């Protein structure tokens, strides 16, 4: 019986583990991928205090390092369900069952699909959701980036070091991204914009992506643009399918908590991007993790 099992080892989960372990609790950190979560998908982090610039994988490593020394058990597993048994919780993974007095859900979010023809067919053959993983495959190519948020603009900037050109196609005529990123993109000679437009289809030959069909949402005009790669950044979906039985999410799957990261079920906490919240960032994930890591200690003391 663990005192707490933290599901997900992104920045929120790792910080929760740090705080819970420093309170001398028996802690397991359960993850289906690798430590770091979404941070592994970005090369440049410039808004994490203490670092002018650090790569996502490096920050992930720095957050993970101290956990082993504190006795946090790192378990690999894909969580399928949590059963609330009152004084304890049962977690079902692909490999079996685990029991714990409390749970911290830190499963974050995953990239949303565009849902157009060719997207699935050319996935990993020119269609990508991760510039830091795949950008270097497209040296001297014309690259298309879809979306207008922080991810699209930041990753478009990153892709300029590889691509001959980088074109951002956005469904409106105004970006959602932070101003500092917008200004950098507007000033970058390699980046151009196609406004008020959406991708209708991703086309290719028998090997890889060769073009996209775009539609101007204002005029209805359809055009074809030749590209060698399409990077898609159209937002995030909550990684919460496995929580349906608990009824702790809103209609979009984000977990509802109070300011102490408690859900409506005693002993079940949620932290980071998986929460219904305004600002999904590493700093806010880390803050949530600290609050919940301390919160489980208080919960267990008062059980
Ligand atoms: P995540 O990082 O999403 O981690 C969740 C973890 O849970 C993952 O490792 C996942 O494998 C695991 N998991 C999910 N479901 C299960 C399951 N069923 N069983 C087991 N494990 C599971 N933020 C910034 O502050 N600055 C930036 O510069 C920045 N750049 C970004 C660039 C990109 C391209 C992206 C995609 C995001 C960026 N962000 C940035 C946002 C930031 O990465 C997230 O806000 C942060 O990682 C959220 O942390 P988290 O721990 O809540 O969740
Ligand atoms: P996001 O902020 O939700 O932006 C998604 C973008 O995709 C929006 O511009 C949206 O258009 C567009 N879009 C959505 N659905 C679309 C569709 N079907 N077709 C075409 N376009 C579509 O998502 P994100 O950029 O991935 O960012 C997610 C979170 O991570 C945010 O909280 C962000 O702040 C954070 N993040 C932070 C940083 C950083 O701090 N440097 C970097 C990356 C990510 P509309 O604008 O019209 O809605």
From TrEMBL:
Binds 1 FAD per subunit. Its cofactor is FAD. One of its GO terms (molecular function) is thioredoxin-disulfide reductase (NADPH) activity. One of its GO terms (biological process) is removal of superoxide radicals. Residues 2-289 form the FAD/NAD(P)-binding domain. GO terms for cellular component: cytoplasm. Keywords: Disulfide bond, FAD, Flavoprotein, NADP, Oxidoreductase, Redox-active center. Gene3D superfamilies: FAD/NAD(P)-binding domain (3.50.50.60). Pfam families: Pyr_redox_2. Its EC number is 1.8.1.9. SUPFAM superfamilies: FAD/NAD(P)-binding domain. The keyword Flavoprotein applies. It catalyses: [thioredoxin]-dithiol + NADP(+) = [thioredoxin]-disulfide + NADPH + H(+). Belongs to the class-II pyridine nucleotide-disulfide oxidoreductase family. Homodimer. This is Thioredoxin reductase. The lineage of its organism: Bacteria, Bacillati, Bacillota, Bacilli, Lactobacillales.
């Amino acid at each position: 019986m663990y005192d707490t099992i933290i599901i997900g080892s992104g920045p929120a989960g790792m910080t929760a583990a740090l705080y819970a372990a420093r309170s001398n609790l028996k802690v397991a950190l359960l993850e289906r991928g690798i430590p770091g979560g979404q941070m592994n998908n970005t090369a440049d982090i410039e808004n994490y205090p203490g670092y002018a610039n650090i790569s996502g994988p490096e920050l992930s490593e720095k957050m993970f390092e101290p956990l082993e020394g504190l006795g946090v058990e790192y378990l690999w597993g894909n969580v399928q369900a949590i059963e609330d048994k009152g004084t304890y919780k049962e977690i079902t993974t692909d490999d079996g069952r685990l029991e714990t007095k409390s749970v911290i859900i830190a499963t974050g979010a995953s990239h949303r699909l565009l849902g157009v023809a060719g997207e699935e067919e050319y996935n990993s053959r020119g269609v990508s959701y991760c510039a830091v993983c795949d950008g270097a495959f497209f040296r001297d190519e014309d690259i298309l980036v879809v979306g207008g948020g922080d991810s699209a603009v930041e990753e478009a900037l990153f892709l300029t070091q590889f691509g001959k050109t980088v074109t951002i196609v956005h469904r409106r005529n105004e970006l959602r991204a932070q101003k500092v990123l917008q200004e950098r993109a507007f000033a970058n000679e390699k980046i151009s914009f196609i406004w008020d437009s959406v991708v209708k289809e991703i086309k290719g030959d028998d090997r890889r992506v060769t073009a996209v069909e775009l539609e101007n949402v204002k005029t209805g005009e359809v055009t074809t643009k030749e590209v060698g790669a399409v990077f898609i950044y159209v937002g995030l979906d909550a990684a919460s399918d496995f929580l349906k039985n608990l009824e702790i999410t809103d209609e979009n799957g984000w977990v509802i908590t109070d300011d102490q990261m408690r859900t409506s079920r005693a002993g079940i906490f949620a932290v980071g991007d998986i929460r219904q919240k305004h600002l999904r960032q590493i700093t806010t994930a880390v803050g949530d993790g600290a609050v919940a890591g301390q919160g489980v200690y208080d919960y267990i003391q008062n059980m």
